[in-house]
């Protein structure tokens, strides 16, 4: 009989896995037949062979997307019609909830309870939200003299290349697909080679929902092969990229070397979590920090991995945080109670362990965690780790670790806190914890980040923009602002006699 801990393993054994691309509404192998083996980070089990897309596959997908855009089979439909079809797509995602959640967990190691309660519903809500918005967004008429009429309209841009990472594979794809498809574009999605399975399944569900063939294509493969071919393609009008700052730089270069396609980068972060001594509920701040930091194994672009605490409460706060961390002990991602799953692969494990070693050798104090865990499984697990007595020069406080590791730096004054928080090449998110109204507003204004949280960290909704200042990127995903990325603004002058 199934127990809660075996039920998902049994379902996993019976799951249909298909790593082929989806081009023009059809499942297809790579043109040259090449594949790569996908293993699960949970226990290194073999999952399936995945199509290794290269330039020829990308070209086939882009030309299918271009044909679909040019004959207006999608862009030409009334917004209300696109709305209905996209709502059906969102419903199909929800109906396939357990299958998609299981694929996501097997592919990249996050706990099944969160794939079910966060990733699948958030992806569906994103698609549904843009569907619902698209027949409610009006264009403009400029205040011109009587002799003319000037219409300011938004038109779909054409073919969008979406290149996404492995940490929230479905949600990151949905943040591109929602606004791009609702606005009438065609899309070629290149998922990460570390998490390709849900993307391919989403494209099948889209076709079942009635999105015409060619409008939404998926080419799995490696970044330097399929990703580069997509970003260089002359028939791609814009790239919606989410990933590392290192690769984001390349996206700008690819655009410069090809057709100056628009590039919207959503990149890395090293978000500051600033706690002042006047904030009364330190246990709450510590609980929130641990929850946000260790969610998704710390593999979140907005993880609050730079903790700045006023010196007078630093010891107390750090002890509270260190007591929270062990509640996120790594466990079997397919067990429904597990809070912290596996890191995505061995490379990521080595990177995270390397940062832990550098924290120790640079003189930070490891209060809890710091070790690899569950090695007997063959998977890639790291204990939630808290460093104290860190300094702003250390690698663990400057570089994005992308694992369950956070570090506390003490500060004396408000001005020093602001300077330290802003002393980063990143600017994705930040938070300020203070019970003084003036201070909270003052510091929130001074922080150079795309999102600033006050006395909380975990609020998030499709209704608000998400993106960064500085080297955290330029575009904004989510909210109506995301339509700006996937539409061209046209002015039409009409003479009035
Ligand atoms: P990555 O940059 O290594 O890869 C991202 C995508 O780019 C993958 O699909 C990959 O195959 C592709 N790619 C890699 N090299 C390429 C190349 N030379 N040409 C074209 N494509 C290439 O990032 P990752 O390790 O998958 O993801 C982690 C990063 O993503 C972190 O830095 C994280 O902060 C960032 N991220 C940012 C946000 C955000 O909204 N700002 C959200 C999630 C993740």
TrEMBL record:
Q: Which UniProt keywords apply?
A: Oxidoreductase
Can you give the residue ranges of the Aldehyde dehydrogenase domain? 33-491
UniProt key word Oxidoreductase: yes
Pfam families cross-referenced by the UniProt entry: Aldedh
Q: Which GO terms describe its molecular function?
A: aldehyde dehydrogenase [NAD(P)+] activity
Q: Which stretch is the leader sequence?
A: none
* Family indicated by similarity: Belongs to the aldehyde dehydrogenase family.
Name assigned to this protein: Aldehyde dehydrogenase
Check the record and name the SUPFAM superfamilies matching this protein.
Answer: ALDH-like (SSF53720)
